[in-house]
Amino acid sequence: MRVVVLPDQQAVAERGARIVASLVRSKPNCVLGLATGSTPLGVYRELIRMHAEEDLDFSLVTTFNLDEYVGLGPGHPQSYRYFMQSNFFDHVNVQPGRTHVPDGRALDFEAYCESYERRIADAGGIDLQLLGIGADGHIAFNEPGSSLGSRTRLKTLTKETVDDNARFFDNPDEVPRLAVTMGVGTILESKRCLLLAIGDHKARAIRSMVEGPVTSQITASALQLHRDVTVVVDESAASWLERREYYDEVERAQSLIESGQPRALGIQQPEE
Ligand code: GLP
Predict the structure, then answer these.
(1) Cα three-residue angle 60-64-67, rounded to 5 degrees
(2) Among residues 16, 136, 182, 241, which is most buried (max CB within 10 A)?
(3) What is the pLDDT of residues 95-105, one digit of tens each?
(4) Catalytic site residue 108?
(5) Is the beta carbon of 134 within 6 A of some atom in ligand 1?
(6) CATH of the domain at 147
(7) Does the residue 211 lie in any domain?
(8) Centroid of ligand 1 to alpha carbon of 97 (angstroms)
(9) What percent of the chain has pLDDT over 90?
(10) How many domains does the chain have?
(11) Is 136 a catalytic residue?
């Protein structure tokens, strides 16, 4: 895992957007895995700005969202389809037919979830999966105890997640208890993952994910098994990391290499 610690929320949003934008520029028909929640909002805002001011073109991009509440239709203001439309899709030139958010009102969920997996595979797989993290260390809606090999399926939400989400609903009884979510196994098949976290309420989850054992109790920890994961966090979310200095050191070296200054690290070119 590459762990990048940045000063604040804005820096996290800009770095996240830069990573997404550079993929979209180098592979205009890429497949993006997208996430909802407050964390990726800044990334979407920044991508919308890049679309408006820097001609970032989404016309050939295909997207697949991680999850959706069961029972909420696309017009419900708390549905994840509604979130994606109002916070991102409606403001860029992505083709509506190329955006996929699981249907929380499917009649036959088993068949529906299989077809969602098939659509991801038919699109060539996900090139870059954007992720947030729940306070209990879950990714998408893969609550503690989810199989690390799980695929898209129905999942019962924990009380902690239901309580976390209650703030978005007028009446706490309206908060859905079930969700349809990509599995941990589905996420691990993405070619690259980009997980973002902001705020000290995520610090414990970030430490468990990066430095704890791989366990189904912290489903984000399964990302330790993936070969290309970038974790971008602000200072608060990084505050429980024990090997923080090492991550900063790696980041310094990585930036020197990427900006073409290997000599600053004592790396000589063969002809030198
Ligand atoms: C929900 C979503 C996750 C998201 C998490 C954290 O559980 N299913 O995808 O990462 O909330 O949300 P936030 O970014 O608002 O903290």
Answers:
(1) 160
(2) 182
(3) 999 999 999 99
(4) no
(5) yes
(6) 3.40.50.1360
(7) yes
(8) 25
(9) 88
(10) 1
(11) yes
What does the alpha-carbon distance between residue 249 and residue 256 come to, in Å, rounded to a whole number? Answer: 11
The mean pLDDT value for 210-214 works out to: 98
Active site includes 138? yes
pLDDT in tens, 220-253: 999 999 999 999 999 999 999 999 999 999 999 9
38 close to ligand 1 (CB < 6 Angstrom): yes
Q: How far is the CA of 30 from the centre of ligand 1 (A)?
A: 24
Residue 100 is among the residues annotated as catalytic for this protein = no
- Provide the mean pLDDT of the chain: 95
From 38, 39, 159, mutation site for ligand 1 pocket: most ligand atoms within 8 A of C-beta = 39
How far apart, in whole angstroms, are the C-alpha atoms of residue 141 and residue 183? 8
Residue 103 lies in a domain: yes
Which residues is 153 bridged to in the sheet?
181
Q: pTM surpassing 0.85?
A: yes
Domain with 80, as residue range(s), is 2-227
Q: Give strand pairing partners of 68.
A: 180
Is residue 194 situated within a structural domain? Answer: yes
Q: Is the pLDDT of residue 164 over 90?
A: no
Residue 175 CB neighbour total at 10 angstroms: 18
- Residue 220 near residue 205 (C-beta atoms within 8 A): yes
Phi, psi of 99 (to 5 degrees): -100, 135
109: its two tokens:
């969920």
Q: Is 12 in the pocket of ligand 1 (CB under 6 A)?
A: no
Q: Is the CB of 144 under 6 A from ligand 1?
A: no
**How far apart are the C-alpha atoms of 188 and 98, rounded to whole Å?**
22
